[in-house]
Design goal:
The chain has 289 residues and is an all-alpha fold. It contains 12 helices and no strands. The chain is globular, with a radius of gyration of 19 Å.
Length: 289
């Protein structure tokens, strides 16, 4: 395993996703969220459709459209809709901090719905991690922003998506699964536009560049993380996923003039700390097994 290159690819992937988030947040000030979703979904679906066909994969084969692949696509749409909405309404640094709770939600979901064994140590880490989330969102206090609920919905959507992915047979290609996910995002954007009675707006050359940047960096980030998992040892490279929070804090401060307070930074540190502990604990459990 080439761990050094794997680590570099993970860091590059997290940077790519952060740049994508930056473009989306810029666009959300002038373009309806539904239109952004529709555009990203259409472009992503087209890219992965071409990739799947280039590899001889069928996009309409019966075995690729099962209850699990459809459920995964729906979870992808919910997660994307909630995440883009949160980016439009909540500081990017806060969104990134709460989003780091996703591994905690995945572990909890695996225990509750997939029957995976999670000991008391990891359950304790999950509880402490979600206490870190509460420090950031502060429900019941004047600093509480109801829009942050969208980040929590996105976390649950991504956790559901990743858990359902484990149930999809290996003979369904990743490119086809990705195509289905982006297609669902396209339909979610269309539905949102219709539900809010929003009209499509003409985009300026600058906004077109932002949209292109979001697509390019999003797809590049996806490819980088896939490549990293193939060439590196998961135990060595996974912790570097948390660099996304660092990149988001930098973008928040430099681009959007945000100033995360002490409680937000403390909560983020707790979430990351418990996530790393769970990851290390899982390695210990795997070695014993």
């Amino acid at each position: 395993m080439d761990n050094r290159n794997g680590i570099l690819l993970v860091i590059a992937s997290m940077a790519g996703f952060t740049v994508e988030d930056m473009f989306i947040k810029q666009l959300s000030a002038t373009i309806p969220t539904g239109q952004i979703l529709l555009t990203l979904g259409a472009c992503g679906a087209l890219i992965f459709a071409v990739m799947a066909r280039a590899k001889g994969r069928s996009l309409t084969a019966r075995n690729t459209w099962t209850k699990f692949t459809i459920a995964r696509a729906c979870a992808e749409a919910v997660a994307a809709l909630a995440f883009l909405t949160s980016l439009a309404l909540v500081p990017i640094s806060t969104v990134a901090a709460v989003f780091q709770a996703t591994p905690l939600a995945i572990t909890m979901g695996a225990a509750l719905f997939l029957g995976e064994q999670v000991g008391w140590r990891r359950w304790s880490a999950i509880i402490v991690g979600f206490m870190g989330v509460l420090l950031i969102i502060r429900p019941g206090f004047s600093a509480f922003d109801p829009a942050i609920i969208f980040v929590l919905i996105a976390v649950l959507g991504v956790a559901a998506r990743d858990l359902i992915t484990r149930l999809i047979p290996d003979n369904v290609a990743s490119t086809v699964i990705s195509f289905q996910g982006f297609l669902a995002v396209f339909f979610a954007g269309t539905a949102l536009l219709l539900a809010k009675s929003d009209n499509l707006v003409a985009v300026t050359p600058l906004e077109t560049a932002y949209l292109a940047g979001a697509v390019i960096f999003g797809v590049a980030g996806y490819y980088a993380i896939v490549a990293a998992m193939r060439i590196g040892d998961a135990s060595a490279i996974t912790p570097f996923r948390y660099t996304r929070l660092l990149f988001s804090l930098i973008v928040g401060v430099l681009v959007f003039k945000e100033h995360p307070d002490t409680l937000t930074l403390t909560g983020a540190a707790i979430i990351i700390g418990t996530g790393l502990y769970m990851f290390l604990r899982e390695r210990v459990v795997a070695k014993v097994a």
